[in-house]
Amino acid sequence: MKRTVFLLILAFCIQQIKLNALDLGVSYAVMATPEEPYLEIYLEISPGSISWERVDSLTMKAGAEVLILIKKGEDIVAFDKYQLNSPAIPFPNVLLDVRRLAVPNGNYTLEIKATDLLVPGNFVVYSKPVVVNIQPTLFLSEIHLLRGFFKDTSQIKHPLHKNGYVIEPLPFNFYEKSATKLAFYTEVYYTNAVVTDPTYFFRYIIEKDLGNDQFQLVSVGNLKKKPGLIDVGLAEVDITGMETGNYVLTVELRSKKNELLTSRKLAFQRSNPYLNLPDSTLNAESIKSQFVKELDEKALVYSLKAISPLVNMGDDPEELKNILKKGDVEAMRFFLFRYFIKIDPNNPEIAWRKHIETANVVDKLFQSGFRYGFETDRGRTYMKYGKPDDLIHVEDDPAAPPYEIWVYYNFPKTVQRNVKFLFYNPTLAGEDYIMLHSTARGEINNPKWEIALYKRNAQNEFDGDNPADADRMKRNVNRNARVYFEDF
1-134 adopts what CATH topology? Predict the structure, then answer.
């Protein structure tokens, strides 16, 4: 609720501020149908650069008048004039659009003017030369960078529909820190005019631009294609580990013998400021616009306690204990933010939200009355390793307190299989079960666990002559803990 209110306040502030010029992103590519070439133009208007008006107490909208001209000298060859309107939404979002204008081969100027419908003085003009030259021979179109794409299965085609997909453009050729995928779209024409083999290869290469004509290979992918009149090149690359910097995407068409047929290059930028970020560089400026600034002390304490089972696996648990003891809110924010940018440098807030969702579930599952459910032994185990694959809960063993056995068939944390945990409740107080034994590496391993489990009601019924060396109990018709643990 707090975040919703914050976003509505933000939206109201955006409506009120004086805007200097629309922030318009434009990308275009020369495409073709079998009959004629056309110019495909993608537009994006930044939500913070346009005026928003209230529709009702919960939603708002914005709009712009768009004029697109394709000119040859002073002559207008093609044009489009329309209104680009957002839907009624709870808070500002980007305005996206795509337009396709048929033009013959030639040299042109693409001019676009976008004007805020609410504030006519808030406008921007874009102008750029364009060459259209598609001949009936092998041709690779310009590359469209995308935020993403998905199959369009709806009966009514989406406004961003293209050859069976909805493609969301990226007009600024810039992937910001929350982006995890690079996607792109291009088209290939007339491969059947030059490729005689039954297949050819569509290769895409990403390189980091190191300067001075030096490049570092980052990623390579290949698609096998069949020659034809028109084909689509659509691919996606994971960029979560891609550092901040300048990059080049190269698309190549190669023959079956690996001969280069044609290629295209496109430069783009990547921002990934929290990837491998040294702790020493974190400061107040780093977190001033991050999710941790919205958390009050209670939420911070809850969040830090919820990560404590995992902090014990890697970071400094003593540092966390000291921060919680001192109650320094800013120190809490730094620790929490630092933790989650290591988990997901691209989307630390999403990683935090997912973790808190799990913590909420675990807290309810293992409520003890003394502490949060995720602070109990069973809760900490669940937070560290996930839900067990199987579980047995025993309360009817007359010689033992209630106990549970958890089984994990696959245990990637330690590369083990059939890992087991045994928890018991020796005090019979609430649901605060204690871990007695586990076969997981790094966890409590107690060879005498069976003796400890039955010591209150059957302590003299150990197997053997020496109680100091005994690690097993004598068999008994109702004494099934070892049978369950070994055979379950």
Answer: Immunoglobulin-like (2.60.40)
Type of residue numbered 415: V
Which tens digit of pLDDT belongs to each residue from 347-374?
A: 899 999 999 999 999 999 998 777 899 9
User: Using CA atoms, how far apart are residues 388 and 395, in angstroms rounded to an integer?
Assistant: 19
> Which is more confidently placed, 391 or 285?
391
Nearest Cα neighbor of 363 from 308, 429, 438 is: 308
d(Cα 426, Cα 368) in Å, to the nearest integer? 14
Contact between 204 and 220 (Cβ < 8 Å): yes
The single residue listed with the structure tokens 């901040």 is 244
User: Do 135-272 and 1-134 have the same topology in CATH?
Assistant: yes
What is the token pair recorded at 350?
């999403």
Q: pTM of the prediction? A: 0.67
Domain covering 135-272 in this structure, CATH number: 2.60.40.2550
Q: How far apart are CA 21 and CA 27, in angstroms?
A: 19
**Other C-beta atoms within 10 Å of 260: how many?**
10
Q: Domain coordinates of the chain in residue numbers? A: 1-134, 135-272, 279-378, 388-487
If DSSP codes are grouped into helix, strand and coil, which group holds residue 431? coil
The conformation of residue 14, written as its DSSP 8-state character, comes to H
Please provide the average confidence, as pLDDT, over all residues in the chain: 88
Measured CA to CA, the distance from residue 379 to residue 361 in angstroms comes to 10
Angle 93-95-99 (CA atoms, 0-180°, nearest 5)? 160
Phi, psi of 329 (to 5 degrees): -60, -45
SS3 10: helix
Find the helix or strand (DSSP H, E) in which 429 lies: none
Residue 406, token pair as written in the block: 């958890």
- Band (pLDDT 50/70/90 cuts) for residue 8 is very low
- d(Cα 87, Cα 90) in Å, to the nearest integer? 10
